[in-house]
Amino acid sequence: MKVLVVFYSLYGHVYKMAEAVAAGASQLEGVDVDIRRVPETLPHEVLEKMGALEAQKTLEHVPVCEVEELADADAIIFGTPTRFGNMCGQMRQFLDATGKLWQAGTLIGKVGSVFVSTATQHGGQESTILSFHISLLHQGMVIVGLPYAFQGQMRIDEITGGSPYGASTIAGGQGERMPSNNELEAAKFQGQHVAAIAKKLTS
Ligand SMILES: Cc1cc2nc3c(=O)[nH]c(=O)nc-3n(C[C@H](O)[C@H](O)[C@H](O)COP(=O)(O)O)c2cc1C
Q1: Does the CB atom of residue 175 touch ligand 1 within 6 A?
Q2: 83 to each of 61, 78, 115, 123, how far by Cα in Å?
Q3: N or C: fewer beta carbons within 10 Å in the chain?
């Protein structure tokens, strides 16, 4: 049983969530978890202007995902920062390169799941995940979210991401907030939940 966590992260928030998702999936016996980032499309100078070079150093050891790797996974959990309420362009470009897999129906019946990061509480937490699901449905994937069994999504005593659609974090306007404990727990839960469902589907 193979779970693939595929993400893009400019300032490290989604990466932190991706690590928690992977840790959650790894908790299940007999599950292999790989973590990959999608190719960067921005030139170095633009990354520098965006103040992202330091954060990029912390994740450059993560292998870049090859489209073919999706074919080997039983479940794929995608992580993206929001861009105007949608997935980021780097992830869009990566998904747009999966036409060959779509043509062959390779991803049909595999589990697909999404987690996100936004700057603000209402700047795309839900829309980014739900609009991402459209691409996964076109690929014939079985969508899995974050069930209310993860009770942390009910919290109102602190600011928190997390919804039935998937785990999420709120990075702040300057990226000053890293994922909270509750958000990381949500990510772990989602990873484990996806792995458990994929295990059932493949048994
Ligand atoms: C071009 C652009 C568009 C963005 N659009 C939104 C948005 O619509 N809503 C929002 O809350 N944050 C938005 N953000 C902020 C990012 O989502 C935020 O930097 C990201 O979640 C941080 O995650 P990362 O460190 O993993 O990249 C935008 C950032 C950029 C650069």
Answers
A1: yes
A2: 24, 15, 14, 9
A3: C
